[in-house]
Design a protein that fits this description.
- The protein is mostly helical.
- The chain is about 55% helix and about 0% strand.
- It is built from 5 helices and no strands.
Length: about 80
């Protein structure tokens, strides 16, 4: 899955691929594969990126154009 927003968000925040790779605890070449769509990015890494960019996973994967994060659901045992 090619996620153009991965690269756009990184560049908009002036982050290098190396910086994001360190944040995700992976190698830069591995992160590059995610940006180019040669590998699917795991959901747990998407969650870290959504928190870093203060947006939602849905925004990153292109399911919405709404940049704002969803409010946290504080209910337990739903």
């Amino acid at each position: 899955m090619y996620l153009k927003r991965l690269k756009d968000l990184r560049e908009d925040n002036d982050f290098s691929q190396e910086y994001i790779a360190r944040l995700l605890q992976i190698t830069r070449p591995q992160y590059s594969l995610y940006e180019t769509g040669k590998r699917d990015i795991p959901v747990d890494l998407l969650r870290v990126l959504a928190q870093k960019y203060n947006t939602s996973i849905d925004y990153i994967v292109g399911d919405t154009d709404l940049f704002k994060r969803y409010p946290k659901n504080n209910q337990k045992n739903i």
